[in-house]
Amino acid sequence: MLKWMDDYYIGETVRNVEDIRQKLDQGKLVPGIYLLTLSVNPHNILEIVPAVTLFQKTAARMCPEIVGVAKGIAEAMELVRSIVQTVYEETGDVQVEKYIKNR
C-alpha cells in the first residue's frame, strides 16, 4: 500500500484522481501520471516519480510519502515549482517538508 499525504496536491489537468489513486494502490499501471514525493535525499526537496515505476512491487514498497499527482512531466515540474514558490512566499524559506507536514 502506498503512503499518501492526507491533503495532497493535484495538477490542473488530472481528472478522476480517486480512480488513479485506487489503481495505483492496487498495483495497476497508470501511464502518463507522475507522483511528487518527499525526497529521501537530504540534498533534494521533492522527487518526481513516474507512476509506471510503481508497477514494480519493490519500487512501490520503497516509495516515500506521496504529496502530489500530476499528468505529464511538464505538469509535475510546474506543480513542484508552484509548491516551492508558495512555501517561500509564505515562510521566507524552502523547507517544503516541514511546511507540508504542518499545513
The gyration radius over C-alpha positions equals 13 Å
What would you call the structural class?
Answer: alpha+beta
- Low-confidence runs of at least 5 consecutive residues: none
| Major sheet strand order | 1-4-2-3
Please give the count of helices: 4
Note the main sheet: 4 strands, mixed
Distance between the termini: 24 Å
SSE succession: EHEEHEHH
Number of DSSP-assigned strands? 4
In terms of DSSP E residues, the strand content is 15-25%
* Overall pLDDT confidence: 92
Shape: globular
The percentage helix is 25-40%
Tally of distinct domains = 1
Q: Please identify the oligomeric state.
A: single chain
Folded structure, characterized:
It is built from four helices and four strands; from the N terminus they run E-H-E-E-H-E-H-H. It is α+β, with helices and mostly antiparallel strands and 103 residues long. It has one domain. It has a four-stranded mixed sheet. A hairpin with a 7-residue loop joins strand 2 and strand 3. The radius of gyration is 13 Å and the shape is globular. The model has no long low-confidence stretch (mean pLDDT 92).
